[in-house]
Structures are given as C-alpha cells and as structure tokens.
Amino acid sequence: MSYHPKVDDYVKWTDSLGKVTEGWVYFVDSTYITIEVGVKDKPDDLVHFHKKTHCCVLCFSQNWHELEYIKHRRKEEKNFSEYKSQQYRDSDLY
After folding, report:
1. What is the pLDDT of residue 38?
2. Number of domains in the chain
3. 2: which of 11, 14, 61, 76 lies 20 to 30 Å off by Cα?
C-alpha cells in the first residue's frame, strides 16, 4: 500500500538524486503536494491577515513513493462543537 500524504503530516523526501527535504505537508492535491520547509515573520504589515512567509517545495504525485512519513500534528478526533472561526471584518477582505 502506498503512502497518501495529508495536510499536517511531517515527511522526509529523498528524491532520485539523493537530495533530502523535510517539512510539514502544507497543501494536498491529487497531482502534487507542497512541503513547508521554512517559515519567517513578514517584515511589513501591508497585508495584516498574512503574518508569515512560507517557503514550500513541490512534490508531484509520481514522487510520493519517495516520501517517508515521520509524524503528524493533527488531533485524532476533532470536536467541532469546540471549533472557533477566525474573526474577520468585511474590510479585511479588500
């Protein structure tokens, strides 16, 4: 059975050239995932609801067999009665 990445999995990717990349799965699609390899604070406040800059690496589905699952940071059971939406104002969208 092959590994199917999920958001918030921590993976190690050793590609066919021997390059090793480690990080959190940030986005998943049927054709590719992004692996977050770095995060830093933004130096400005031009867009106040984006506080971080994320550096991600693309890994296409034909390379998923090269991924090694390490761990995850998801809760096993999500209690949606405790879910709290992020607050925003209409002015935040424009």
Report:
1. 93
2. 1
3. 76
Six token digits for residue 40: 């830093």
Write out residues in the chain with pLDDT < 70, as ranges: 1, 76-94
CB atoms within 10 A of CB 10: 16
Decide if 36 is inside a domain: yes
For residue 51, the tally of other CB atoms under 10 A from its CB is 10
Q: Report how far residue 63's alpha carbon sits from residue 66's, in angstroms, rounded to the nearest whole number.
A: 6
Q: For the whole prediction, is pTM greater than 0.90?
A: no
Q: Which amino acid is at 63?
A: N
What stretches of the chain adopt beta strand conformation (E)? 9-14, 20-28, 32-41, 52-60, 67-72
Round to whole Å and give the CA distance between 84 and 13. 34
